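User: Let's play a game. I give you a shape written as tokens, and you guess the letters that built it. Ready? Here's round one.
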């Protein structure tokens, strides 16, 4: 009846280790099977490290479980080896956790905090020196010491860094999904507790004032972490859904623009010729009347006609620019330079606003510098016009997955939800007659489209507007053409 014995003799603590390990292994598997290859989310780049932590830590718990069940039946030699592996696996798991937390924080900060990379090495050095000073030996007592020290260093720091990363990241994804954001936040908070239970409290002991074995608390935290993170993995499905929606919108937009473009070219040509004619004749009339006219009013009226004709031809010219499929001159360029030169060009208009630039090193892109400058001029003009009493404009560049991203935000009046879907439409304007043609953003859209990029806009009334332009980098273009 040995089978029956096996089950009736299992102490409850074994079940605890079983579920503790299972929770983390399940976390690892859930991440590993998730298809995140095309994701642009910051979390995507570091998630494999969390899976590594899940697998390694789950394995660690199951090794402990094996020792509990079989410890008294195996030889000291085997015990020695299993303990050695257990220590190795626990150190490895916390190392993964630390790396995950650091990678997440760095990606949230657009890889600016390069010094964070050094933390694991410093902790590792500290770990080795400490152990060396306390008598480096190959025995079980020493393994215990190494385990405790690994928990106090990698475990504690890794857990806290991960908690900080997850909580910070949860704020970033609020707009994408509130429920994912909440789950990431809860996972972060649970990691704080976990790092205390696993990093500060030694195994086989209890917390002061809390007469529960610390293993139980670790186990509960592990199950909660796995639940929250697995729920938060939904973010990748939400991202894909949003991408598809946007693509459909973009398709509809480009079709609309294409047909409007044809119409616009026709109209612009038809209008431009008579307007030039009117302009010329106005000049002649004015010159003739100038000398032998006494009624000033007539001259003023003529000038008013001339102004209006000028305005009409400006619109016609913009229309042509919008619709013209002029061959672009694509050359490798640094987007940061295009932005800087645009700012120089617009300096006279930017007196009342404060420009905040955060230009990171980005790879080169293929583009037409003149046209791209036009794009940034139009976007910045809109921002300035949205802030009649001055304000702030934030310009940042970054790059990930072969995409260069330019974000231009302002603290202007914002755009209502109803208008947001129309701003790329030609002639859509909320500005007074004479102030806006409504072509600025549709020209931007067309130019960026020609560069195989995307233009997006988001806005909150009363708070401000953000226009995001994404362009493929040269590397990305080359990679795509190789794989074709
Ligand atoms: P125009 O500037 O001639 O009106 P655009 O195509 O440049 O045409 O912009 C269309 C409309 O989008 C504007 O009239 C305005 O209502 C809105 N808009 C664009 N950018 C901004 C911005 N940064 N802040 C507020 N509203 C904006
Ligand atoms: Mg405009």
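Assistant: Ready! My guess for every position:
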């Amino acid at each position: 009846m040995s089978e029956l014995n096996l089950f009736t003799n299992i102490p409850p603590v074994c079940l605890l280790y079983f579920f503790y390990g299972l929770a983390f292994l399940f976390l690892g598997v859930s991440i590993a099977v998730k298809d995140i290859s095309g994701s642009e989310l910051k979390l995507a780049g570091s998630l494999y490290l969390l899976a590594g932590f899940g697998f390694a830590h789950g394995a660690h718990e199951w090794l402990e479980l094996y020792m509990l069940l079989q410890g008294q039946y195996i030889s000291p030699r085997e015990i020695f080896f299993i303990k050695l592996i257990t220590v190795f696996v626990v150190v490895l798991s916390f190392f993964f956790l630390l790396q995950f937390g650091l990678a997440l924080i760095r990606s949230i900060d657009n890889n600016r905090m390069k010094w964070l990379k050094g933390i694991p090495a410093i902790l590792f050095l500290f770990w080795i020196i400490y152990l060396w000073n306390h008598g480096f030996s190959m025995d079980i007592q020493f393994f215990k010491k190494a385990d405790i020290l690994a928990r106090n260093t990698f475990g504690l720091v890794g857990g806290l860094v991960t908690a900080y990363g997850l909580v910070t990241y949860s704020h970033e994804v609020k707009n994408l999904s509130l429920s994912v954001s909440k789950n990431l936040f809860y996972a972060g908070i649970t990691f704080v507790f976990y790092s205390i239970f696993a990093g500060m409290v030694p195994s086989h002991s209890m917390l002061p004032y809390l007469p529960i074995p610390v293993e139980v608390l670790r186990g509960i935290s592990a199950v909660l972490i796995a639940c929250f993170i697995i729920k938060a993995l939904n973010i990748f499905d939400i991202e894909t859904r949003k991408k598809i929606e946007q693509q459909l919108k973009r398709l509809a937009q480009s079709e609309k623009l294409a047909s409007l473009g044809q119409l616009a070219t026709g109209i612009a040509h038809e209008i431009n010729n008579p307007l030039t004619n009117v302009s010329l004749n106005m000049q002649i009339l004015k010159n003739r009347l100038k000398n032998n006219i006494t009624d000033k009013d007539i001259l003023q009226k003529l000038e008013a006609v001339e102004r209006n004709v000028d305005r009409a031809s400006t619109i016609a010219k913009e229309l042509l620019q919008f619709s013209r499929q002029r061959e672009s001159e694509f050359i490798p360029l640094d987007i940061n330079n295009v932005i800087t030169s645009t700012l120089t060009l617009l300096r006279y208009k930017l007196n009342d606003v404060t420009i905040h630039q955060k230009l990171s090193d980005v790879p080169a892109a293929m583009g037409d510098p003149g046209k791209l400058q036009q794009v940034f001029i139009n976007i910045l003009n809109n921002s300035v016009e949205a802030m009649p009493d001055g304000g702030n404009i934030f310009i940042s560049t970054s790059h990930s997955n072969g995409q260069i991203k330019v974000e231009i935000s302002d603290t202007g009046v914002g755009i209502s939800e109803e208008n947001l879907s129309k701003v790329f439409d030609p002639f859509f304007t909320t500005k007074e007659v004479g102030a806006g043609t409504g072509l600025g953003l549709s020209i931007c859209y067309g130019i960026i489209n020609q560069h195989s990029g995307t233009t997006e806009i988001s806005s909150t009334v009363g708070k401000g507007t953000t226009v995001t332009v994404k362009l493929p980098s040269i590397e990305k273009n080359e990679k795509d053409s190789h794989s074709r």
